[in-house]
């Protein structure tokens, strides 16, 4: 980057609240556009009360996500600034750097490769179809979040890990608390996290007695026979996979259907052509943020960001939500454009990759599965409920607040 570098002002001056408030369930926080234009590296106050910096422009966000000096592992150091009072997965994938992160990721990455996901697709279609059957049998109106958007990815990750689907409401309660920014007290967060880990410890013990053909059983074997995992790493990894494997997909599936139903054509905009469907999924991922920012990073050495030098031990939030609405990267960034990522436009250079799944060594390993789940879910709903529409005015649909992930509270729908 050219030009003079300048030190940042102390975070206590003109610090913004993070995350910025959403005006409604439709729009991203309006503050991001102003920050991209005027303050691309902005001091913020984190939910923990600690000071940090928010990065909002696409190129800067992408750079931070791949810079090894912007560390995930450093966030768990006692002296480091914290996003929340109770870290999500201290000692897990989200709070590791290479080479430890590489070692742990390699143990599970084969379960999420595009080839493995392609083999899973018939089962995804079957699971989505079963939920659609139940939805049709119950009849309209319905809360699509409760009847489809949540149970579908939960069923998928439960089968993959070998977790009982019947326990879904229990671990949903635990997951919401673990992913809390401000929705739960630190005491509640810790209590629910300990309950989830205790549940997983009992499940691991059951897998030791009677292993199955599932990922958790395979990880138990790695732990017991190869010594490739400590017991704490095993439990934390299981928690991370269970939560990340359903929370984000459930959230973006609900907001994606909401996006389609707010625009002319509704579910008729879901194409039959696989390439066009893939392009639609990419645009829905871009325009419907999984969360407002991303996992916290802490600088291990001075780092240049957006023309300023951050000192070591600075907390940094790289806002993927803001980056995916950056007009310098995406023309008319606030417009829903189902063909934005179609192959023809990609070949001409008029489409650009979004950052919904991150970038760099922490790029979401479940991205192929999430994409497949979205494609199958949208195709199933469009086929089974072509007249699907909102059952309430748009402004009556609200978003959960105080969570790391974006998720609608309810999605009331009806159909003919």
Describe this entry's structure for a reader.
InterPro entries: Cyt_P450 (IPR001128), Cyt_P450_B (IPR002397), Cyt_P450_CS (IPR017972), Cyt_P450_sf (IPR036396). It comes from Streptomyces albus. GO terms for molecular function: heme binding; iron ion binding; monooxygenase activity; oxidoreductase activity, acting on paired donors, with incorporation or reduction of molecular oxygen. With 416 residues, this protein is of the alpha/beta class. The protein has one domain (6-414): Cytochrome P450 (Cytochrome p450). It is 45% helix and 9% strand. The protein is built from 15 helices and 12 strands. The strands form 3 sheets. A 6-stranded mixed sheet has the order 2-3-4-10-7-5. It is globular and about 60 Å long. Residues 1-5 have low confidence and may be disordered.
